[in-house]
Each structure stands twice: as structure tokens, then as C-alpha cells.
Amino acid sequence: MRRNAVEHEGWILPQVEYVQKDGRIDAIEPLIDGQPASEFVAEILDRLACFVEEVTAHCLQKQLPAGITITELRVADRDTEMPERFRVTLANGGMPAWRIAFHQSSFENT
After folding, report:
1. What is the tens place of the pLDDT at every residue in 2-36?
2. Residues ≥6 apart with Cβ < 8 Å to 78
3. Which stretch of DSSP H or E encloses residue 51?
4. 50-87: per-residue pLDDT in tens?
5. How would you class 69 by CB atoms within 10 Å of its CB: exposed for 0-12, middle for 13-18, buried for 19 or more?
6. What is the number of alpha carbons within 13 Å of residue 37 lying toward its C-beta?
7. Residue 98 carries which DSSP code?
8. Could you tell me if 64 and 39 are in contact, meaning their C-beta atoms sit under 8 angstroms apart?
9. What are the percentages of helix, strand and coil residues in the chain, rounded to 5?
10. Can you give the residue ranges of every domain in the chain?
11. CA–centroid distance for 49 within its chain
12. Alpha carbon distance 52, 45 (integer Å)
């Protein structure tokens, strides 16, 4: 939605507003689709990180030899020192094969 507005309507990010109150100046961040800009950017970057990781895993999975695939480790099963999300497994008799699918969970909880 925002991309269309930028490309077709000439949308630009509103300016930061500054308000003086009680001898100090506060910055009010602009809103993007009803969210403060910093929250919007964090959400978009999170979605982008998930997209890149999952498309990369999907493409690598397609290049594995027959009988080999990848599985997704549950968040609780990941080592905090090296939070590996995917692991190679046997396609038959191994761990469940991972399949790319839409989700709304954050990158940290995926």
C-alpha cells in the first residue's frame, strides 16, 4: 500500500514536528499508516528479514539432492549462542520437511 502511494501518488514522509513545552523541545515523529515512523520501519525490516531468510532457505532446499531436505527447529530447541533455524534432514524418515508458508510472527519468533 505505501509503495503504491510513493510510486503513483508522489507520497513523501511528513516532517518531524517539534513542540516546545515546559522549557524543553520534544520531537513528534511522523505517522506512516497510523504508526510512528520508527515502529513502521522496525516492522518492515522485520518482515524483510523473514522474507530474505525464507526465500533463501526455500531456494537452497530446492537444490538439495534427492532424499535430503531441511527441517525447521522450534524456537525453544535453538541454541542461544547460535540460533540455527534450519537443519538438513532426510526427506523420508527424518524430521518433518519445512515448507515455505505465509506467517505474521516476528523474525525472532520464527
Report:
1. 666 667 777 788 899 999 989 999 999 999 888 99
2. 84, 85
3. helix 37-63
4. 999 999 999 999 999 999 999 999 999 999 898 899 99
5. buried
6. 10
7. P
8. no
9. 35, 25, 40
10. 2-109
11. 4
12. 10
